[in-house]
Amino acid sequence: MSETLSLSSEDLAFLGPYIPPSGPQHSQEPNASSKLPFTSLTYACSLDGRISLAPGTRTALSGPESKSLTHYLRLHHDAILVGVGTAIADNPSLNCRYPGAALEDQPRPVIVDPRARWGRDGEVVRLVGEGKGLEPWVLVGKGVKEAAGLGSGRVEVLTLDAAMAESPHFAWRDVLKSLAMRGIRSVMIEGGASVINDLLANERDLIDAVIVTVAPTWLGEGAVAASPAKSVAAMTDVKWRQFGADAVVCGRLPK
Ligand SMILES: NC(=O)C1=CN([C@@H]2O[C@H](COP(=O)(O)OP(=O)(O)OC[C@H]3O[C@@H](n4cnc5c(N)ncnc54)[C@H](O)[C@@H]3O)[C@@H](O)[C@H]2O)C=CC1
Ligand SMILES: Nc1nc(O)c(N)c(N[C@@H]2O[C@H](COP(=O)(O)O)[C@@H](O)[C@H]2O)n1
């Protein structure tokens, strides 16, 4: 399953303080915990803070070394979470391809999809069939009838109450609580833009670690920005390290 390089012992020492405390865990018993999972926010951006060239486009920003870092982080989290915009735009694998990672090391892909827009034939589902990843959990709003078509056996639909504003919105605390109740003790939130911006602007308390890869390029004005609607106080416990051509910045958000 490996597609990436192993990180050096110096890389691992750098990342150590930002990794969930107890490493990979896969006890998925229901009601395992009422405690919120250790939550990491991690993504790659350009020097102008953009995460993809245009809405709905997949853009490779991380070089091979920082891509290895992402897979090392995936190895150390119980779940990876993305918004449905990312699931549709990127058709991602959302598995761990770090050297030595086996099926039992795989994180649980979680797709936040209140209106059940995501299809069933994506990459992440194909990998379940090939034994290279876990069945994704799709978080859908209660009573959304499109969800009925999703239970293909390779997807598990979880329902959650959504605030019905202009578009349905789950409270992030409820999302994390529902994952904790299913045995998830650490979750790596990868994006996309609306997820990152919402969490940074409104839910800093829920984030335990931030790990951002900065690629030495500019994507320009039409690109999708990781830029919260309001200013966010500077991170604390900040460290950075070069991974290939990229800078990786880690820190914590002041509570
Ligand atoms: N460079 C990087 O590291 C990454 C880049 N991306 C890029 O981001 C772009 C996608 O970003 P977006 O279009 O903003 O999509 P997104 O992935 O943030 O998904 C947005 C959708 O997710 C759902 N959602 C998000 N938060 C919710 C909440 N609290 N409650 C209920 N539903 C919620 C809504 O349906 C919303 O429309 C893609 O181009 C992708 O390539 C995505 C992840 C990482
Ligand atoms: N770390 C990182 N660097 C980039 O350059 C990226 N474009 C992303 N995107 C995120 O990774 C997902 C793709 O995962 P797979 O390789 O298909 O498993 C994508 O959906 C984004 O969440 N990340």
UniProtKB/TrEMBL annotation:
Keywords: NADP, Oxidoreductase, Riboflavin biosynthesis. GO terms for molecular function: 5-amino-6-(5-phosphoribosylamino)uracil reductase activity. Its EC number is 1.1.1.302. Pfam families: RibD_C (PF01872). It is an enzyme of class 1 (oxidoreductase). Residues 38-248 form the Bacterial bifunctional deaminase-reductase C-terminal domain. It catalyses: 2,5-diamino-6-(1-D-ribitylamino)pyrimidin-4(3H)-one 5'-phosphate + NAD(+) = 2,5-diamino-6-(1-D-ribosylamino)pyrimidin-4(3H)-one 5'-phosphate + NADH + H(+); 2,5-diamino-6-(1-D-ribitylamino)pyrimidin-4(3H)-one 5'-phosphate + NADP(+) = 2,5-diamino-6-(1-D-ribosylamino)pyrimidin-4(3H)-one 5'-phosphate + NADPH + H(+). The keyword NADP applies. GO terms for biological process: riboflavin biosynthetic process. Pathway: Cofactor biosynthesis; riboflavin biosynthesis. Catalyzes an early step in riboflavin biosynthesis, the NADPH-dependent reduction of the ribose side chain of 2,5-diamino-6-ribosylamino-4(3H)-pyrimidinone 5'-phosphate, yielding 2,5-diamino-6-ribitylamino-4(3H)-pyrimidinone 5'-phosphate. PANTHER family: 2,5-DIAMINO-6-RIBOSYLAMINO-4(3H)-PYRIMIDINONE 5'-PHOSPHATE REDUCTASE, DIHYDROFOLATE REDUCTASE FAMILY PROTEIN (AFU_ORTHOLOGUE AFUA_8G06820). Belongs to the HTP reductase family. This is 2,5-diamino-6-ribosylamino-4(3H)-pyrimidinone 5'-phosphate reductase. It comes from Cryoendolithus antarcticus.
